[in-house]
From TrEMBL, chains A, B:
Protein's gene: deoA
Protein name from the UniProt record: thymidine phosphorylase
Catalysed reaction, written as an equation: thymidine + phosphate = 2-deoxy-alpha-D-ribose 1-phosphate + thymine
GO cellular component: cytosol
Domain of life: Bacteria
GO molecular function, a single term: thymidine phosphorylase activity
Similarity-based family: Belongs to the thymidine/pyrimidine-nucleoside phosphorylase family.
One annotated GO biological process: pyrimidine nucleoside metabolic process
Coiled-coil annotated residue ranges, if any: none
Record carries keyword Transferase: yes
EC number: 2.4.2.4
Entry keyword Ligase: no
InterPro entries: Glycosyl_Trfase_fam3 (IPR000312), Glycosyl_Trfase_fam3_N_dom (IPR017459), Glycosyl_Trfase_fam3_N_dom_sf (IPR036320), Nuc_phospho_transferase (IPR035902), PYNP-like_C_sf (IPR036566), PYNP_C (IPR013102), Pyrmidine_PPas_bac/euk (IPR018090), Pyrmidine_PPase_CS (IPR017872)
Record Pfam families: Glycos_trans_3N, Glycos_transf_3, PYNP_C
Length: 442, 442
C-alpha cells in the first residue's frame, strides 16, 4: 500500500477502507509518512469529507495509537465531559465537583490551552500547589476517594491525535467535521469513561459558527460514541458572547468558585446545571434530565459541591484555603477600564475579539511554547441585552505588561456593539442530541 | 504576512493577490515555508483553482525565482516548443533540426524524464559523446552557428518550479490546471524564447484525459504567454495511442532519424509538420500555417533537416556517424514478441499501459535517482485501425533483464484491444489555439 495512492483516492472523493485508514495512522505515528504528505491528505479530507464508517475507523485507529485507560477499578458509571471550546469557558471546574457530589465519579483528563485563554489544566495551576501531572494510580485513587480528579493527559493517550492536531493547527485543516470528531472522540474513548457528555459550542467564538453545522457535529459525535458502545449526549450551546463575566485563568477560577457557592453568572451556572443533569442521567444518579437538574440545584444550595472542590484541590496538592479565600489567587498588578462611548443596549459581544484581546494581555498561548500569565484577563461589566449609558464601564482589564495594552483595549472595545433597541437574546442552550434524537430548546 | 492565513484564504475560495503569491514563492524557495504547509496550499489550489490573474502572478513569481536567459545575441525570432507529455513522443528530436533548417533558431532546454520513458535529454544521451550540460555561452554559440541546440536546464532556470514540482509529485497535486500552466510557462518564459508552440496532449497517456480539459489548458497557456508578450500557439493532439511505433530511448532516436530521412511513422511525421509549421509562422519564416507546412515538407524531402541534426550532434560532442548508421545506437541484447490471440481490428492501444510496460523494462525512471536503460523498449507492429490475424505480431520487446519481462509483456498485451469492426480513427491533431482563437481540426 502506498500512501500516495490514498491521497489520490480521497482527493477524488472515494471512501477509504478500514485497512487503509489503519495503515495511514500507524505509518504516520511511526514517522514513515512525512508531514508534507499527511497535510495534503488532511486538506483533501477537508474538501471531500468522510462518511460515518471512515470517521469510525479513523477514531478507532487513533484510540489504538496509544493505550486505553482502565477505569474499571472505580465503582460506578464514569461520565466524561468535553467542550468544543468557548471564550471564558470555566465549566469543568464547577461541573466536576457538582457531578461528583451527586455520586457520579469524574475521572477527567483535560488539556492545556492553545489560543485565547488557557485550558482547564492551566486554570487549575493558578491554585498554588495544585498538581496536574499525577501518575495514573494516584489519579484513580483520588477519584475513588474524593469522586473527582482532573489531570493532564498521559503521553500515551491517543498520541496520533497529538501529532495530527499539531499538523492541522498550522495547515488550515482544523475546521473539518471528520477531523474534529475523530480528534475529540479518540481522546474521550481512550480516557476510559463509560459515557460522554459533549458541549458543542456555536457562534462567533466557536469552531462551528453556524447552528446547523454544530448540530451536524453533535449528531456525528453521538453516533460515533454509540458505535463504540458509549452512551453520548451532545448539548448545542450558544457562544455568541463569552460565557460568564471572566476571561483569563485565575479570574475564571474565581468565577467557578462563585458558581459552587450557588452564585456566579447566570449563563455559566445554567450551563453547568444542564451539562451536569445529563451527566447524572447517563451516570445513573438521576432518572432523567429534569431530576438531574433539581438534584444539582439542591447540591449547589447545600454547598456540597463547594466542599467537594476543596477536597479535590487538597488531594491534588493544592492549598484548599484558596478556595475559601479566592483573593489569594494571583491577580495582575494593574487594572484599567473601558467605557461605553454611546448610550444604548449591548447588541453583540464578539467572543473571537474578546479572546484575542485576552491573548494580547498574556492570558493565552500563541504558540505551544508560549508562557501564560495566569493573573491577567478581562471582567465584563455588561452582557448582551444590558442597558449601558455613555461613559459607563463595559469591562475591566487586568494587566501586568502595558506593551500590548492599547491593542488589547481597542480589540475589547470593538467587540461591543451598542444599538438603540433592546436585542432579542439568543438562549444559551439550543439543543440536546442523544440516542433518542434531537431535542431543540429554542 | 503569515503563510497560514494564505492557506485559509485559498481554502475558502478567495483570490490571492500578487503580493501574496510573490511572498509564497519567495519564502518557499528560501526555506521559510515548510513543505507541510506548501502541500496543504497545493491541495487547496487543486480544489479551488486560480483565476487568470493568479496564474499570471504565480508564473511570474516562478520565472523570477531564477534568472531569465538572454538569447538576444542570437539573430531572429527564437521559438520554443513544449509538450505536456505523451508515450513514445520523440517529436523534439526531429522538430528542432527541421525548424532550424528553415532558418528559425531553436535554443531549447529540455528535461529528463520521470515516468514511462526518458525525456528528450535522456534520448539524446543514447548518441555516444552527446553532451547535454553545456555552458550558456557554448549553447548560444551553437545556436548561432548551427541554428539549433538542445541542453539540460541550467540550475537557475525557474528553481521554484523544480522545488514545487518535486512536492506536487508526491502529494497528489500534479493534475491541477493552474499548477500545470505555471510550471510549464515559467520554464518556457525563463528560457528566453520570443514565441512558444505547445503540444497539449489528451487521451489515455496524457495528463488531460478529456479533450475539453486539454482545450481549457491550451487556452490558458496561450493567454498567459500573451500576458507576457510572447505569441503562443497550443496544438491539441490525441494521445489515445502511442506516437509512432517506438517506445524507449535509443529506439525513439532511430525513429526520429527516420522522420528526418523523410520516412518514419505517419503520425509522428504529421505532428512534426504541424508543430513545425506553427513554429515557422511565429518565427517569421512562413506567412501562415499552410506555407510553413509546405516549406517543411520540402526540407524533409531535400534532406536539409537531416544534415542539420548531424551538425547539431557534432557541435554538442556526439558522433555524427551514428546518425548515418543508426544501427550503432545501443540496442538491448534480447528481443521477444507478443502476438495477437484473436483475429480482428485494433480498437485501442492504451498508452498508459504501454508506458508502464516500457518502464518495467527499464526505459523510464520510477524515482529521480533511478538509472535508465537507454537500449530497451518496445516497437509496435500495429496501430489503432490495423487489421491483425491470430498469431500475428503485435509488438517487439527489446530487453536486457528478464526479471520483470513477464509483467511487462502482460501489460503490453493487455494494452491492445482487438474487436470485429474497423474502428473510426480519431485524428492526431484536434485543434490549434492562438491569439486569433480556436481552430478545430476534427
Amino acid at each position: 500500500m502506498r500512501f500516495y495512492d490514498l491521497i489520490i483516492k480521497k482527493r477524488d472523493g472515494q471512501e477509504l477502507t478500514k485497512k487503509e485508514i489503519n495503515f495511514m495512522i500507524k505509518e504516520y505515528c511511526e514517522d514513515r509518512i512525512p508531514d508534507y504528505q499527511m497535510s495534503a491528505m488532511l486538506m483533501a479530507i477537508y474538501f471531500q469529507g468522510m462518511n460515518i464508517d471512515e470517521i469510525k475507523y479513523l477514531t478507532m485507529a487513533m484510540v489504538h495509537s496509544g493505550k486505553i485507560i482502565d477505569l474499571s477499578s472505580i465503582p460506578g458509571i464514569k461520565v466524561d465531559k468535553h467542550s468544543t471550546g468557548g471564550v471564558g469557558d470555566t465549566t469543568t471546574l464547577a461541573l466536576a465537583p457538582m457531578v461528583a457530589a451527586a455520586g457520579v465519579p469524574v475521572a477527567k483528563m483535560s488539556g492545556r490551552g492553545l489560543g485565547h485563554t488557557g485550558g482547564t489544566i492551566d486554570k487549575l495551576e493558578s491554585i498554588k500547589g495544585f498538581k496536574t501531572e499525577l501518575g495514573l494510580n494516584k489519579f484513580i485513587n483520588i477519584v475513588k476517594k474524593v469522586g473527582a480528579s482532573i489531570i493532564s493527559p498521559t503521553s500515551d493517550l491517543a498520541p496520533a491525535d497529538k501529532k495530527l492536531y499539531a499538523l492541522r493547527d498550522v495547515t488550515g485543516t482544523i475546521d473539518s467535521i471528520p477531523l474534529i470528531v475523530s480528534s475529540i472522540m479518540s481522546k474521550k474513548l481512550a480516557a476510559g469513561a463509560d459515557a460522554i457528555v459533549l458541549d458543542v459550542t456555536t457562534g462567533s467564538g466557536a469552531f462551528m459558527k453556524e447552528y446547523k453545522d454544530a448540530l451536524k457535529l453533535g449528531k456525528i459525535m453521538v453516533d460515533i460514541g454509540l458505535e463504540f458502545g458509549k452512551e453520548t449526549v451532545s448539548v448545542i450551546t450558544n457562544m455568541g458572547e463569552p460565557l460568564g463575566f471572566a476571561i483569563g485563568n485565575s479570574l475564571e477560577v474565581k468565577e467557578a468558585i462563585e458558581v459552587l457557592k450557588n452564585r456566579g453568572p447566570e449563563d455559566l451556572r445554567d450551563l453547568c446545571l444542564v451539562l451536569g443533569a445529563y451527566m447524572l442521567e447517563l451516570g445513573g444518579a438521576a432518572k432523567n434530565y429534569e431530576e438531574g437538574r433539581k438534584r444539582l440545584e439542591k447540591i449547589l444550595k447545600e454547598g456540597t459541591a463547594f466542599s467537594k472542590f476543596k477536597e479535590m484541590v487538597a488531594a491534588q496538592g493544592g492549598n484548599p484555603e484558596i478556595i475559601d479565600k479566592p483573593e489569594l489567587l494571583p491577580l495582575a498588578k494593574h487594572c484599567t477600564k473601558i467605557k461605553a462611548v454611546i448610550t444604548g443596549y449591548i447588541q453583540k459581544i464578539d467572543s473571537q475579539l474578546i479572546g484575542e484581546s485576552a491573548m494580547l494581555l498574556g492570558a493565552g498561548r500563541e504558540k505551544k511554547e508560549s508562557e501564560i500569565d495566569l493573573s491577567v484577563g478581562i471582567i465584563l461589566k455588561k452582557k448582551v441585552g444590558s442597558k449601558v449609558n455613555i461613559n459607563e464601564d463595559l469591562a475591566e482589564v487586568y494587566y501586568n505588561d502595558s506593551e500590548k495594552l492599547k491593542e488589547a483595549k481597542n480589540k475589547l472595545l470593538s467587540s461591543f456593539v451598542i444599538g438603540d433597541k433592546k436585542p432579542k437574546k439568543i438562549p444559551l442552550i439550543l439543543a440536546a442530541i442523544s440516542k433518542e434524537g434531537v431535542k431543540e430548546f429554542r
